Amino acid sequence: MSASSTTPAGSTAGSNPGGSTAPVNKRSRVVFASLIGTSIEFYDFYVYATAAVLVFPALFFPNADATTSLLSSFASFGAAFIGRPLGSILFGHFGDRVGRKTTLIAALLTMGIATFLIGCLPGATTPGWAVLAPALLTLFRFAQGIGLGGEWSGAALLATENAPEGKRAIYGTFPQLGAPIGFIIANGLFLILNLTMTPETFALWGWRVPFLASALLVIVGLYVRFRLVEAPAFTKVVEQNAVARVPLGRVFRFNWWQLILGTFIMLATYVLFYLMTTFTLTYGTTPSSVEAGKAAADAAGKPFNADAFLAGLGYTRTDFLIMLIVGVVFFGIFTLVAGPLAERFGRRNMLSVVTAGIFVFGFLFVPLADAGFVGVMLWLIIGFSLMGLTFGPMGATLPELFPTNVRYTGSGVSYNVSSIIGAAVAPIIALALWGLAGGSIILVGIYLSLAAVLTFAALRLSKETKHSDFATIVE
């Protein structure tokens, strides 16, 4: 451990109820700053996820059949999940050594700049860009992952380390609420563009608008975060000369078990979310017959392989985006509901019940998806409601596993390593299982249920953290 005699960057002194000198944030500012930052970060992330299904296969991977182009697009989508653990290590290091505020600003800038640059890229059919365009797309996607890897844990700590006694799980839901808000803004913007542009105009330049618009959102987020002061919990770490010299080394040495548990506690959440967004958008908008698939490929000027064709639900892009947005509204509602439930019943017990629900839900994929419009809507609503219930408490659950001086690193690494095993490969595994089952999604649902089993086991092996001493600086 290293001593430090300076006040963390961005701090201003104030008095707390205990009489010691410490930074003070207004609760309304804490809520808004944690919410606005993650909303922007998730907006940036979802803009790419939507474009990876709707635009990027033809724009950046044009010289292949539809399935191969989609797989290539999903592979670039997965690059961010490689960057996320690295981002959690990088930003976690500075978040545990320099402070939460400065690190959060840097993470937001990283994500915002990468998103803006994606909007500036020429397509792979532009002369001289056949190789460079998809390579830069993947690089900028990787940078998006670096930024989000540092964002989540910092926003969660901003909320929970400033929360009143007995309300950590409630305050921890506010950064989580950024996920459905970011999704709705991103896909709502894509929906508006689809309704106001021809497909040709959208493919030519309309898809760039959501990426370029990110710059305006980042400016708002930076303004809010520059007005923050450092969290009292981190200030106490500095005052007691308990700043970890190498937070990553310390957390692996003393908190390795918590890292493992945290990673698998998040697993089902990640698998569920990326199946309900990226995969369902693919499955929902894929033509429902070989004839319709061939007609769509001919209209796009792409080769068609009838043997590799997988039938989907056949909804139009616009219709299914609206259906997804309706489902995500339930995601937001149940994210907020999850906080009070986790305070009342405890994180471990509440999440165990929800995870059991996710296990059952995996076996409902086929019956619901095959039941027409009403069944598909129930599929989306139930899935996103479960997503809110499992995602909401994570803003408190993961940080509560770690002491203050390695909390940024520990919670961030757990959250983002889980993103690799739970999210980066989820759309690709789902596509493979979809094909293996001959066009049925029964194996995709079983895949989700197996992830729920692993998460349930991790929850039962963990301890309840509701009454844990969040002021513990070093273990």
Describe, in short, the structure shown:
The chain is 73% helix and 1% strand. It has 475 residues and is mainly α.
- Give the CA-CA distance, first to last residue: 12 Å
**Overall mean pLDDT:** 86
> What is the radius of gyration computed over CA atoms, rounded to a whole number of angstroms?
22 Å
* Low-pLDDT residue intervals, each spanning 5 or more residues: 1-23
Strands side by side in the biggest sheet: 1-2
The name of the CATH architecture is: Up-down Bundle
Estimated helix fraction: over 70%
The coarse silhouette is globular
Q: Can you summarize the main beta sheet?
A: 2 strands, antiparallel
Provide the domain count. 1
The number of helices is 21
Q: Enter the CATH topology name.
A: Growth Hormone, Chain: A
Structure description:
With 475 residues, the chain is mainly alpha-helical. It has a single domain (25-242, 254-461), classed as MFS general substrate transporter like domains (Growth Hormone, Chain: A, Up-down Bundle), CATH 1.20.1250. The protein has helices at 27-54, 56-60, 66-97, 100-118, 132-160, 168-196, 199-206, 208-226, 232-239, 247-254, 256-265, 267-285, 290-300, 317-345, 347-362, 365-369, 372-391, 394-397, 407-424, 426-436, 442-461, and strands spanning 14-15, 21-22. The protein has a two-stranded antiparallel ribbon. Strand 1 and strand 2 (21-22) form a beta hairpin. Helix 5 (132-160) packs antiparallel against helix 6 (168-196), helix 12 runs parallel beside helix 19 and helix 15 (347-362) runs antiparallel to helix 21 (442-461). The model is unreliable at 1-23 (pLDDT under 50). It is a multi-pass membrane protein. Keywords: Cell membrane, Membrane, Transmembrane, Transmembrane helix, Transport. It comes from Schumannella soli. Residues 1-15 have a biased composition (Low complexity).
